[in-house]
Every structure is written in C-alpha cells, then in structure tokens.
Amino acid sequence: MGQIQLNQVTKSFGDVQVIPPLDLTIEDGEFTVFVGPSGCGKSTLLRLIAGLEDITSGHIAIDGTDATDVPPAKRGLAMVFQSYALYPHMSVRKNIAFPMRMAGIDQAEQDRRIEAAAKALNLTDYLDRRPGQLSGGQRQRVAIGRAIVREPAAFLFDEPLSNLDAALRVGMRLEISEMHERLKTTMIYVTHDQVEAMTMADKIVVLRAGIVEQVGSPLELYQRPGNTFVAGFIGSPKMNLINGPEAAKYNAATIGIRPEHIDISETEGMWQGTVGVSEHLGSDTFFHIQSGLSPEPLTVRASGERKLKYGTEVYLTPQADHLHRFDQNGLRIE
Amino acid sequence: MATQHSRSAARLMMAPAVVLLLGWMLIPLSMTLFFSFKKYLPLRGDSMANGLEWVGFANYARFVGSSAFWPSVQATLVIVGGVLVITVVLGVLLALLLNQPMWGQGVVRILVIAPFFVMPTVSALVWKNMFMDPTNGLLAYLWKFFGAEPIAWLSQASLPSLIMIVSWQWLPFATLILLTAIQSLDGEQLEAAEMDGAPSIKRFWFIVLPHLSRAITIVILIQTIFLLAIFAEIFVTTGGAFGTKTLSYLIFQRVLESQNVGLGSAGGVYAIILANIVAIFLMRIVGKNLDA
Which has the minimum average pLDDT: A97-106, A151-160, B10-19, B134-143? Predict the structure, then answer.
C-alpha cells in the first residue's frame, strides 16, 4: 500500500515561500513524476514527503493516516538520492543490509532479501566490493537495492539518473520502469528531464515555482497542455508558440503547434520562412525555420529523407486540428 | 613532464633541498651516535680537542640501569596515551558541536582554536599559577567553595595535571582537523541513514565516525610525534619531580644537570628507538586507514 495525500502543504525557508499551498494525491502503485525547471521546488516537495524537511503548514497523509509529524524512518518510504549517498566505508552487501540492520531484521531474512535484490539488479558479483570500486550505473543500482530491501510503501527518487552518461541513463530508465511493473509499488520520481517524465510516468506533475501547473498522464499533457508553460516544457523539440496578429486570427493570444504538426513545402503554404539549421537524426529531420511569426525560429519535423539547403525559401502549413490555443493568461482555450 | 630531460632537470633542482634535509638529519644523528660511545664529561676536562675515550656500550648499560629509566618510559607513554585519548574524544565531540549552525559561529571557532597559539611555556605557567596553585589557584577556590580540601595538583596528582595541561594545548589542533573532516561529510549520506531508520546515535557510530577515521589517524600520528618530545610543560611545572620525568626530560637532566654528554646521547638513541616502536605500533593499528 502506498497512497500519499498532500493537503494544503506549504513550505517556507525564512520569508521565502517555496511551496504555496498545494494539494496532490498520489494513488497506490502509481508511477508519478515531478518535473519542472531547476529551482521549481520539485526536490523540496519530495523531501517534504520523505520527512527530511518539515512542512510549514498543511498535512501529509500516507495510506490515509496523518504522517505530518512522523519522522522519516517511520514513514515507510525509501529514497534514492541524486548522489546515491552510499556509505563509502561499507561493502555493497553492508550498504544494502543497513536499513534492515537498523530495523533489527534477523540475519537469515536479511541474507535472503540481499540475494534477491542483488540478483534482480545484477549485483551478485559485486556484493563484497566497496562503492568506490563500482561504476556510476552499479552505484545507482546499489542505491536502488538499498531502497528495495526495505519493502517500502513508496519509493522516492531524487533525480537518480542525472549523474549517469546518456547511454546508461536510457538503460536505467528501462530498468526502473521494469522494476515498477514488477513491484507495483508507488514511486515518486523527480527530474528536470521531460524525456524521463514522458517515458516513465503514469502521472506527470508539472511544477513551476512551487505551483502545480498541470497533472495528468504523459499523453494528456502532450496532447492537451493546460497552459503555455506546460506546452513549452513537455515535448522535445519544444512546441512552437506564436503570439500576435497570427494568433489573433484564431481568436487567441498565443497559438501553439508541435513540430510534427506542420507541413513543409517549397511551393505553397500559409506561412513563409527561410530554412536555417537542419538537424538530421536519421529517422527524422528537424528544420529550424526563420519566419516573422515569432522571435525564435519555428521547429518543423520532416521525414529523415527530406533535405533542404540552408537559406531555402519554404512555406509552412499548420495542421488545423492539432493547433493549441491559449488566452492572455496563457490558459488553454478549448 | 615525463621526458628524460625534464626528469633529470627535476632531480637537479630537488638536489639542494634533499642534501640539506639529509644533512640536517644525518649530522645530529651521527654526532649523537658518536658521543653515545664516548666518555664525555665536559666539567671533568673531557673535550673534543683532547680526544674522547671510547667506552663501548657502557653509556647504554648505565642509562638503562639507572632507576629513573623505566619510570621515565612509563611516564612518557602515560602522558602521550592520556593526551591522545582526551584530545581525540573531546575533539570529536567539540567538532560535532562546532559543526552545528549557531549564532556567533566564527567567534566561537576562533576562541576554541586560541589555546593552540599560546606558547607551551606560557600556558603551563598560567595553569600552574592561576589554576592549580593550592592556595591562590582558581581550582583551589572552587574546591573551597564546595567545602573540599584544595588539591596540590602538581605534587599530589602530577601526571593527571600534566596530561590536563597538555590536552588543553592540543585539543584545538584535534578539533580543527576533525571539524574540517566533519564538514566534508556528504549531507545526503546522513539523510539516507536517517531514512534507513538510524537514530542520531547510530548515524554517528555508523556514518560519522567511520568518515572521521582518517582524520583521527592523522591527529593521532601528528600528536604522537610532538607529544613524545614535550619538555617545556614539565620544566616549568614540576621540573621532573613527582613522577613526571619523561624520557626527553631524563636526557636533558643527564646532559645539562649531570653534564654527562655521553650518557645523555645514549639516552637520545633510546628515545629514537622508543619513538620508532611507538610509530610502528601506531602505523599497524591506524595506518591502514591511510590507504585507499
């Protein structure tokens, strides 16, 4: 079990309020990702849930019981830190055993759980090594192992992949998703990388300056972003946002169109522009097109075979049914 | 950096320093060894110019045979051991305390470090006259205030008094090194241990103390080197009386009070041997903390 409920939770450091009153429910077994730019309060929010920071006001309930004043160890949550926070003077085995040792679990049960975790995480051969002798990915797995053996109500991940190189990150992303499918335990995952959020989450919580901008499944957020911030943040490359007279034609203050929803032609179309840099990814090609519509170039996705020289005059046509409209406050117009 | 040319240039440039250091070490050492095999009593007319009489191992035998020898070794080890225990234990506790955020942190830290800047002679005299004097000392007042009979510290409890004085001097050093070590501890490790269910005592025992082990090793090694040779504190307080005669003090007495250079030199060689035994012992126990 691991349902977590935040009720009017706030957090202030001195006079600075980093989390304004916030309500959020994370259902049992859900993989929830907190995503947002640096300094948006997502790590603070996680630490509030973990109990590593005291909340200024409001309530946190875990499985329906109030946990606001429960110390971190008693909340039944396990956390994986950004720096892994392994104990450098202990072997991998002792690192993984540490929470069980603190809980006074008997030795046979400890060994059984360590073996199981090591097997699941491919750590069996490394149990007697020190963290200093492991690679980044292995350390990451030890940190996860240490969290698993506690059999917690929920896992908390604080940017766990940000210290890994790109290839390992993709691999660990899959392993963590795989683990979630197997364990079916609630997981809360903090990241600033919207690709991680999109690929792993059941539910994404987009945060900005401590405020929840939108909550929803990855596809909901991608297809129906609630405001211009979410529209610009979710999706890579970013959605093209256009203000001014062109948006006014659609009765909106801002319109947004994703790169894959613009048709590009050398002969005819709605908007005129000049091809800038093109990025060939093999499967797709992204063209950055200078037009008078927005200060930044528009990004357009085309098939991998498409080639356009720098400086070519082109015409763009947005697909009308994939156009997003936003009002003066940046909120979505249906 | 690793070309043949740069390596030989590096050697050439280091040579003066190496030669100087070697000379610095080797000349006094070989002179000590030389004198230790000679009868050299300057007041009885022995001098380098007249040639010194070779006496073999007589000085060594006499130095060990003296009734003051074994007590002096014991006093040395008791003082070194006592000061090490007190400074390391209190040093860890003080470092933990000073690491807490508090008002006036900078000033407090300077105050804690201050005793280290007081010269040993001065601090020992301050302790002797201001604190430990049985009639006028502050401790005597304190004892009288509670209706107790004041203790004549330096005669009745001479070794503990000396250990107290020397610990007071060296505590700042230990605290300083341990404080910097504590500051380098990754906060996330402590938070992880807290999430793992370790209460603060266990966090200290399983996380903080192992993290400090290397710093503690350094404190012990450096302090031992200096503590084996403490002299001023004894000279100005007890003058070697009441069982506070350490090995270095005994050597001083043999050379300068008895004017027996040969005997004192033999004692010096024993001191070197003792220092090395202690060093090997310490390296065995704590030296493994310095690898990895």
Answer: B134-143
How many Å apart are CA A135 and CA A39, to the nearest integer?
29
In whole angstroms, give the CA distance from residue B223 to residue B89.
Answer: 14
Partners of B292 on chain A (C-beta within 8 Å) are 132
Q: Where are the beta strands (DSSP E) in B222-289?
A: none
How close, in Å, is residue A147 to chain B by CA atoms? 8
Is the domain A238-333 a CATH 3.40.50.1220 member?
Answer: no
Confidence at residue B288, expressed as pLDDT on a 0 to 100 scale:
66
When CB atoms are compared, the residue of A50, A87, A88 closest to B195 is A50
- CB contact under 8 Å between A87 and B206, yes or no, is yes
* Cβ–Cβ < 8 Å for A19, A41: yes
CATH superfamily of A4-230: P-loop containing nucleotide triphosphate hydrolases (3.40.50.300)
**Can you name the CATH fold of B4-290?**
MetI-like fold (1.10.3720)
DSSP string of A34-85, one letter each residue: EE-STTSSHHHHHHHHHTSS--SEEEEEETTEE-TTS-GGGGTEEEE-TT--
Whether ipTM exceeds 0.85: no
Query: Each residue of B55-88: pLDDT tens digit?
Result: 878 788 888 888 888 888 888 889 999 999 999 9
B98 versus B286: the higher-pLDDT residue is B98
Task: Kindly list the domain boundaries of chain B, sorted by start residue.
Answer: 4-290
* Chain A contact set for B196 (CB, 8 A): 73, 98-99, 102, 146, 150
pLDDT digits (tens, 9 = 90+) for A272-288: 889 999 999 989 999 99
Q: Are the beta carbons of A79 and B206 separated by less than 8 Å?
A: no
Chain A nearest C-alpha distance from B194 (Å) = 6
